[in-house]
Amino acid sequence: MEFKSLYNKWRPAFFSDVSGQEHVTLVLKNQVAAGRVSHAYLFFGSRGTGKTTCARILAKAVNCLNPRDGDPCNVCEACEAINKGSTADVIEVDAASNNGVDSVRDLREQVKYMPSALKKKVYIIDEVHMLSGAAFNALLKTLEEPPAHVIFIFATTEQNKLPATILSRVQRHNFKRITPEVIAARLAYIAKEEGITAQAEALSLMARLSGGAMRDAIGFLEVCAASADGGPITFEGVAALLGLSDRSRLIDLTEAVSRGDAAAALEVFWELHGNSREISGFLSELLDLLRDLQFCHLTKDPSAYLELPEDECKKLAALAAKFKPRTLIALSDMVGEALRGIGRYTAGGKTAAELLIIKAALYASGGMEQPPPLAAQPAAAPIKAAAAPGAAPQPTQPAAEGPKPFDKFAEFMESFEKDNPILAAFLKSASCAVDAQKGEVIFAADHPMVKKLAELPDNDALIKRHMKAVTGLDLRVIIK
Ligand SMILES: Nc1ncnc2c1ncn2[C@@H]1O[C@H](COP(=O)(O)OP(=O)(O)OP(=O)(O)O)[C@@H](O)[C@H]1O
Ligand SMILES: [Mg+2]
Ligand SMILES: [Zn+2]
User: Which domains does the chain possess?
Assistant: First the structure.
């Protein structure tokens, strides 16, 4: 029998089986049901989240002889031919390997001909961002005057690499990272169907480690099932297999740092290094851990943000409590800097990592006077004479129109930092603008977690309060 990986075997055949992308699948279903299908689509977003899957379902749905509510039936001749890949009317092109202008010219020639057996000719062009500039230009001509019997479905993880001329001619659908809960539910379903027994915590752990990619999560399930060899898949088993046992040793190391016990911290480091851990991998996991600890300081319920099992969160919260928020920021900066400099060292940076650990332990326990400089500190702007207590500061002049870069950002940060240094560290890396007319302050942050955290009621109120102190305005806080 042909071997099929689990994720291929369980590729959804109906829109309604696609998890976590309802904002896309509902629209597509309705379009098919109403006979209002567009001539060109772009499916973009995170990898392993259902782009190719939905492209194939859509190709079937528009050709199905008995579609139901916009979903294909998967049993008629047309659906069967597409499922088997035996029709010449649904063409999948991998733009990564056919990226030249010639393949697009060929395509433009073929597009003119009517479908041979099905209702519509569907071109699924994967990794479309890989096309050359000339190929895009050639494609554009077809998109300008598409024959009625043709549908294009482009898929990419890198929408930003597509020319605007293409983007404006396609209907775009964003495939989001799938939440751990939704992934775990799908894993539980597949496990049940496959007769695989697994602890719920084990499935959540796989879901979390997948980073929102369903394909990766199903891949983990397959590997873990093979390794459990018929036995139940346990949390510990997954942790060991997917290299998470290092994480508990990293926690030990950080614990030792908090006590200022450099020797104990070094011992853990040597053990990890002895297990042929790469220094850069070690440092970036340490950085991840420090980030998680910072989140613990930001909210009373870090489990909602950390996407870790309950007891793991408790462990982290206890560890976080051993550090002052400022110390965590400084340590992250130290590790981040070491990580950036690692290429400069010989012997893979082992000595540099050892020195870093000693310095960190010394600093965390207060034995080092000078805190290491904060990396992202903006140049402090000269601060105007402080307003007398109680007296409202002068409102800043309303901007003519639209958001303006916030000129008192440094001043705001300086006061805000005193109340919430961790959130301040995140906001520092965001760009900030004030729209005085609309009464808004807008932060554009690059980490989605920053949005979630800054929008917590307490944090939102804190930002507002400090904004008012600096600008005299009551501003709504918008985090993008
Ligand atoms: N939203 C989803 N619901 C259920 N299963 C999914 C989903 N997304 C992905 N999968 C599983 O992962 C496999 C791969 O998905 P797919 O090929 O659609 O991902 P993709 O978004 O095209 O990824 P890439 O960007 O790497 O091309 C599918 O066969 C399916 O088993
Ligand atoms: Mg794909
Ligand atoms: Zn059908």
Answer: 6-175 (3.40.50.300), 180-241 (1.10.8.60), 245-364 (1.20.272.10), 404-479 (3.30.300.180)
Does the C-beta of 56 come closer than 6 Å to ligand 1? no
Give the Cβ contact number of residue 437 at 10 Å: 12
Give yes or no for residue 294 CB within 6 A of ligand 1: no
Is 218 touching ligand 1 by the criterion CB < 6 Å?
yes
Q: Read off the pLDDT of residues 290-316 as tens digits, 9 standing for 90 and up.
A: 998 998 988 877 777 776 667 778 889
pTM of the model: 0.65
Instruction: Kindly report, residue by residue over 166-180, the tens digit of the pLDDT.
Output: 999 999 999 999 998
Within 8 A by CB and 6+ apart from 253, the residues are 265, 268, 269, 272, 286, 357
- Residue 47 near ligand 1, beta carbon < 6 Å: yes
User: DSSP string covering 376-393, please?
Assistant: TPPPPPPPPPPPPTTSPP
Q: Which atom of ligand 1 is nearest to the CA of 175?
A: 21
Give the environment of ion ligand 2: residues with CB less than 5 A: 51-52
User: Between residues 445 and 233, which one has the greater pLDDT?
Assistant: 233
Distance (Å) from CA 7 to ligand 1 centroid:
8
